Amino acid sequence: MPEADTTIEKASTNQRRVLWAFASIAVCTVISAMGISHDFHFSRTDVRWNPESHTLQTTLRVFTDDLELAMKNHGELEEGFVLWLGEEREWAESDATLLDWSRAHLQVWVDSVPVTWQWVGKEVELDVSYLYLESQPLDVGPKLWQVTHSGMFKEYADQVNEVQLQGTTLSGKPCDRREMLSFGEPELVWTCKHSK
Protein backbone atom coordinates (compact mmCIF):
# COMPACT_ATOMS: atom_id res chain seq x y z
CA MET A 1 0.00 0.00 0.00
CA PRO A 2 2.75 2.53 0.72
CA GLU A 3 4.05 1.92 -2.84
CA ALA A 4 0.67 2.93 -4.31
CA ASP A 5 0.70 6.16 -2.25
CA THR A 6 4.18 7.00 -3.56
CA THR A 7 3.06 6.39 -7.16
CA ILE A 8 0.06 8.66 -6.68
CA GLU A 9 2.27 11.36 -5.13
CA LYS A 10 4.72 11.11 -8.07
CA ALA A 11 1.86 11.36 -10.55
CA SER A 12 0.47 14.41 -8.76
CA THR A 13 3.90 16.05 -8.66
CA ASN A 14 4.44 15.38 -12.37
CA GLN A 15 0.98 16.72 -13.19
CA ARG A 16 1.73 19.89 -11.21
CA ARG A 17 5.02 20.31 -13.08
CA VAL A 18 3.29 19.90 -16.44
CA LEU A 19 0.55 22.36 -15.46
CA TRP A 20 3.18 24.83 -14.20
CA ALA A 21 5.11 24.50 -17.48
CA PHE A 22 1.95 25.12 -19.52
CA ALA A 23 1.01 28.09 -17.34
CA SER A 24 4.51 29.56 -17.72
CA ILE A 25 4.38 29.16 -21.50
CA ALA A 26 0.92 30.77 -21.60
CA VAL A 27 2.07 33.76 -19.54
CA CYS A 28 5.16 34.24 -21.74
CA THR A 29 3.01 34.05 -24.86
CA VAL A 30 0.57 36.66 -23.53
CA ILE A 31 3.40 38.99 -22.49
CA SER A 32 5.00 38.61 -25.90
CA ALA A 33 1.69 39.21 -27.68
CA MET A 34 1.10 42.33 -25.61
CA GLY A 35 4.44 43.68 -26.75
CA ILE A 36 5.74 44.19 -23.24
CA SER A 37 9.20 43.08 -24.25
CA HIS A 38 10.98 41.80 -27.30
CA ASP A 39 14.49 40.48 -27.75
CA PHE A 40 15.12 41.74 -31.27
CA HIS A 41 15.07 45.21 -32.77
CA PHE A 42 13.57 45.27 -36.24
CA SER A 43 11.62 47.53 -38.55
CA ARG A 44 10.18 47.10 -42.02
CA THR A 45 9.90 49.89 -44.56
CA ASP A 46 8.00 49.55 -47.84
CA VAL A 47 8.62 52.19 -50.51
CA ARG A 48 6.37 51.91 -53.58
CA TRP A 49 6.33 53.98 -56.74
CA ASN A 50 2.80 55.13 -57.58
CA PRO A 51 2.68 55.91 -61.33
CA GLU A 52 -0.68 57.70 -61.00
CA SER A 53 0.42 60.27 -58.43
CA HIS A 54 4.11 60.18 -59.47
CA THR A 55 5.08 59.81 -55.81
CA LEU A 56 6.77 57.30 -53.56
CA GLN A 57 4.35 55.99 -50.97
CA THR A 58 5.98 54.64 -47.86
CA THR A 59 4.97 52.61 -44.82
CA LEU A 60 7.30 52.16 -41.84
CA ARG A 61 6.40 49.38 -39.39
CA VAL A 62 8.19 49.69 -36.05
CA PHE A 63 7.80 48.45 -32.50
CA THR A 64 6.00 51.21 -30.63
CA ASP A 65 8.24 51.12 -27.55
CA ASP A 66 11.36 51.40 -29.75
CA LEU A 67 9.78 54.26 -31.68
CA GLU A 68 8.87 56.13 -28.49
CA LEU A 69 12.47 55.81 -27.25
CA ALA A 70 13.78 57.07 -30.60
CA MET A 71 11.31 60.00 -30.49
CA LYS A 72 12.43 60.93 -26.98
CA ASN A 73 16.08 60.89 -28.06
CA HIS A 74 15.39 62.76 -31.29
CA GLY A 75 13.26 65.41 -29.58
CA GLU A 76 15.64 65.56 -26.59
CA LEU A 77 12.78 64.84 -24.20
CA GLU A 78 13.16 63.85 -20.57
CA GLU A 79 13.61 60.16 -19.86
CA GLY A 80 10.34 59.95 -17.90
CA PHE A 81 8.31 61.88 -20.50
CA VAL A 82 5.30 59.82 -21.65
CA LEU A 83 4.23 60.15 -25.31
CA TRP A 84 1.06 58.03 -25.13
CA LEU A 85 1.26 57.14 -28.84
CA GLY A 86 -2.08 56.06 -30.24
CA GLU A 87 -4.06 57.18 -27.19
CA GLU A 88 -6.41 60.12 -26.63
CA ARG A 89 -3.86 61.80 -24.38
CA GLU A 90 -1.10 61.52 -27.00
CA TRP A 91 1.57 64.23 -26.93
CA ALA A 92 0.44 67.06 -29.25
CA GLU A 93 3.82 67.22 -31.03
CA SER A 94 3.97 63.48 -31.85
CA ASP A 95 3.19 63.72 -35.58
CA ALA A 96 5.59 66.63 -36.17
CA THR A 97 8.35 64.82 -34.25
CA LEU A 98 7.70 61.58 -36.16
CA LEU A 99 7.95 63.38 -39.50
CA ASP A 100 11.17 65.10 -38.44
CA TRP A 101 12.59 61.79 -37.17
CA SER A 102 11.58 60.04 -40.44
CA ARG A 103 13.21 62.73 -42.56
CA ALA A 104 16.41 62.46 -40.51
CA HIS A 105 16.65 58.67 -40.63
CA LEU A 106 15.01 57.54 -43.89
CA GLN A 107 16.80 59.31 -46.70
CA VAL A 108 16.01 58.40 -50.29
CA TRP A 109 17.37 59.73 -53.57
CA VAL A 110 15.83 58.69 -56.87
CA ASP A 111 17.93 59.31 -59.96
CA SER A 112 20.07 61.63 -57.77
CA VAL A 113 17.05 63.73 -56.70
CA PRO A 114 16.51 63.84 -52.91
CA VAL A 115 13.07 62.85 -51.69
CA THR A 116 11.23 65.15 -49.29
CA TRP A 117 8.82 63.20 -47.10
CA GLN A 118 5.36 64.56 -46.38
CA TRP A 119 3.32 63.29 -43.44
CA VAL A 120 0.26 61.21 -44.33
CA GLY A 121 -0.53 59.73 -40.90
CA LYS A 122 0.02 56.87 -38.49
CA GLU A 123 -1.72 53.92 -36.88
CA VAL A 124 -0.79 52.37 -33.54
CA GLU A 125 -1.89 48.77 -33.00
CA LEU A 126 -0.81 47.30 -29.66
CA ASP A 127 2.97 47.01 -29.91
CA VAL A 128 3.41 47.97 -33.59
CA SER A 129 3.14 51.43 -35.13
CA TYR A 130 2.66 52.19 -38.83
CA LEU A 131 3.96 55.51 -40.18
CA TYR A 132 2.72 56.65 -43.60
CA LEU A 133 4.80 59.04 -45.71
CA GLU A 134 4.65 60.29 -49.28
CA SER A 135 7.28 61.98 -51.45
CA GLN A 136 6.94 65.12 -53.46
CA PRO A 137 5.82 64.44 -57.08
CA LEU A 138 8.70 63.18 -59.22
CA ASP A 139 9.11 63.68 -62.97
CA VAL A 140 9.49 59.99 -63.83
CA GLY A 141 9.54 56.63 -62.10
CA PRO A 142 12.81 56.05 -60.28
CA LYS A 143 15.43 53.88 -61.95
CA LEU A 144 18.40 54.46 -59.64
CA TRP A 145 17.47 54.23 -55.96
CA GLN A 146 19.77 55.27 -53.13
CA VAL A 147 18.46 54.60 -49.62
CA THR A 148 19.93 55.23 -46.17
CA HIS A 149 17.88 53.99 -43.24
CA SER A 150 19.50 54.69 -39.87
CA GLY A 151 16.35 54.56 -37.74
CA MET A 152 17.02 53.41 -34.16
CA PHE A 153 20.71 52.72 -34.71
CA LYS A 154 21.42 55.25 -31.94
CA GLU A 155 19.17 53.27 -29.59
CA TYR A 156 20.11 49.68 -30.50
CA ALA A 157 23.37 48.36 -31.93
CA ASP A 158 21.54 45.22 -33.16
CA GLN A 159 18.77 47.13 -34.97
CA VAL A 160 17.91 45.76 -38.43
CA ASN A 161 15.82 47.81 -40.87
CA GLU A 162 14.31 45.77 -43.67
CA VAL A 163 13.69 47.90 -46.77
CA GLN A 164 11.43 46.75 -49.62
CA LEU A 165 11.55 48.89 -52.79
CA GLN A 166 8.96 48.51 -55.55
CA GLY A 167 9.14 50.36 -58.84
CA THR A 168 8.68 49.92 -62.59
CA THR A 169 11.16 49.68 -65.45
CA LEU A 170 11.16 52.02 -68.46
CA SER A 171 8.92 49.51 -70.24
CA GLY A 172 6.46 49.56 -67.31
CA LYS A 173 7.30 46.13 -65.89
CA PRO A 174 7.45 45.73 -62.09
CA CYS A 175 10.77 45.49 -60.30
CA ASP A 176 11.53 45.15 -56.62
CA ARG A 177 14.38 44.79 -54.17
CA ARG A 178 14.50 43.79 -50.51
CA GLU A 179 17.50 44.47 -48.30
CA MET A 180 18.33 44.25 -44.60
CA LEU A 181 20.12 47.39 -43.45
CA SER A 182 22.13 47.45 -40.23
CA PHE A 183 24.39 49.76 -38.26
CA GLY A 184 27.40 48.52 -40.26
CA GLU A 185 25.59 48.71 -43.61
CA PRO A 186 22.84 51.36 -43.49
CA GLU A 187 22.80 52.09 -47.24
CA LEU A 188 21.37 50.53 -50.37
CA VAL A 189 22.01 51.50 -54.00
CA TRP A 190 19.88 49.75 -56.63
CA THR A 191 18.95 50.11 -60.27
CA CYS A 192 15.38 49.08 -61.07
CA LYS A 193 15.41 46.24 -63.59
CA HIS A 194 12.67 43.73 -64.36
CA SER A 195 13.13 40.59 -62.28
CA LYS A 196 12.35 37.35 -64.11
Supply database-style keywords.
196 residues, alpha+beta, six-stranded mixed sheet, 3 helices
What can you tell me about this protein's structure?
There is one protein chain. This protein is an alpha+beta fold and 196 residues long. The chain folds into two domains: 1-34; 39-191, no CATH class. It has helices at residues 2-34, 64-74, 94-105; strands at residues 42-50, 55-63, 106-110, 113-114, 118-125, 128-134, 144-149, 160-168, 174-182, 187-191. The strands form two sheets. The protein has a six-stranded mixed sheet. Strands 4-3-7-10 form a four-stranded antiparallel sheet. It is globular and about 55 Å long. It starts with a helix and ends in a 5-residue tail after the last strand. Mean pLDDT is 85; it is low at 20-32.
